[in-house]
Amino acid sequence: MTVDQRVTIEPAAAPTMMPRMRALSGRLLQRLPGQEGAFWVLWALAVPKLFGPIFTIGLRRFLGPGVSGSYDLAVAPYKLLDNFRNFGTGPALVFERTVSRSVANTAWTLNMVFAVIVTLVLNLLAHWFAVSYYHHPQIEVIIRWLSIAYVFASVGSVHFYLLLRDMDFRARSIPPLGQVIAAGDVAVLFAVWGFGTGALIARELVSVIAGAILLWAVYPYRPTIEIVPQIAWKLFRYGAWIGLGLTILYLSQNADVFIGGRIIHNVNDMGFYTTSWKLAFISASVFTLVASSMVFPALSRLQNNISALRVTLLKSIRQLGLVMFPAAALLAAVAPVVIVPLLGSKWAHYRDSFLVLSLLAVYAGNRTMLSIFFEGYKSIGKPWLVWAYNSVKLAVMVPAMIFGASIGILGLAAVYIPIQILEFPAALILAHRILKVSPAEVWRAASVPVVATIVMSTAAIAVEVLMLQFVHASDLITLAVCVVVGGVVYLGSVVAMDRSIFNEGRAVLLRGL
């Protein structure tokens, strides 16, 4: 490693910490002005997240709801333990004002130790999850294969967060794009060859392996095994709260799968439910990543200037809401005509269950916007609030989910609406107390996207009813007309209310927050 790299070797007598570095020579990419802008964030994160669903939809269309349901039940415990793999040491690297090679090495070593531990734990629990809990023995082998991914994912996790720390989204665009293409191609081959769930397993494993290789290629930090106790404790003390927060957040987001998978024994029904969740969260996952990858670093730089932090936070709400609200609402509106055109004839049985998709789409959009506040709490050094917030939410959700699952997948999805009705005022009150952002300020920031989204949804539903009941058009034609009408109405509504929001959006795309 040379001294021009962002994580440098320091003389023995030097302090352990060093300033945040900017330039990096001898790497695959040359830096360009404006790389912190949202354009590069969207390119680095949104493009792979949009390619990914193409493979996801294609694979599930080919494999059907039964295979999809079995795989998704196995993924739930795998993803749960993945939160313990780095246990927040990565976000701690972003939060720290300065980073040395010893800090990076300690973080990397901790990640590898945790990865080995969770691999062993998941293998020990695989039989219990499959046989005793879900009562689907066929998923045991899926869980065991997935556990291999932990170690490969940890190999490049520090590289990932160091790139995030420098807000070098241009360099970060290479690994995720390479991952989704390599993993998707292999999965398609496995599906065509008749491997069933093996195609989905191969996709996950190839994705983490390709990601590790590409992260090492674009960021020439070469870790060595090193544990400095003081550094390890500092990273763990901050990161543990984020790790716990992510774990509780994951449980609050996936309690329906854990509970539904135990109570609803039909894997086809669960396959439709989890696939509806994935469709609902396509855009939500993109903008959640944008929030954590762009909003968190931007707010962390302002952690000692609460006024500037508040302005940036409100701008984030306004700009993310400009895309997130209409995307979620439009999917909810056109859900009746999406299922068969998108997923194919194997899923036609679930066309009349479109309300599952509609309810999850509404929840996905609103939850993504509320998650922006979490980035604010982390940026001011209070990551424990994320854990506490989601612990309370989870305590409310679990009994509600048990009752909802007894009704079926529609009952499971419907539980989210009353929960979110309770969550909104609680989240706004907490943000007001901690971040000094009043509910009135939040409404002013989000009002244009919200009102325009309501107008758009009304127009889209009216056109949908007209096309289906009076014109008797097919689902595909109805979907196309609704999307066009909805897009035109939304853009027209935003322009009529405040066209300056687009100028602000262009500035964010070019220069960031």
Mind sketching the topology for me?
Layout: H1 38-63, H2 65-86, H3 89-95, H4 101-133, H5 140-147, H6 149-155, H7 157-165, H8 169-172, H9 174-192, H10 197-218, H11 229-263, H12 267-300, H13 306-334, H14 339-343, H15 354-370, H16 372-379, H17 384-407, H18 409-414, H19 416-435, H20 439-471, H21 475-498, H22 500-511
Helix pairs in contact: 1-9, 1-12, 2-4, 2-5, 2-11, 2-12, 3-7, 3-11, 4-5, 4-6, 4-11, 6-10, 9-10, 11-17, 12-13, 12-15, 12-16, 13-15, 13-20, 15-19, 20-21
Describe the structure.
There is one protein chain. The chain has 513 residues and is mainly alpha-helical. The protein is 79% helix and 0% strand. It has 22 helices and no strands. The protein is globular.
Record keyword descriptors for this entry.
mainly alpha
Concise structural overview:
With 513 residues, the chain is an all-alpha fold. Helices cover 79% and strands 0% of the residues.
Structural class: mainly alpha
Strand content: under 5%
How many strand elements?
0
Provide the low-confidence segments as ranges.
1-37
Q: Give Rg in angstroms.
A: 23 Å
Query: Helical amount among residues, as a percent range?
Result: over 70%
Alpha plus pi helix count = 22
Can you write the helix and strand succession as a string? HHHHHHHHHHHHHHHHHHHHHH
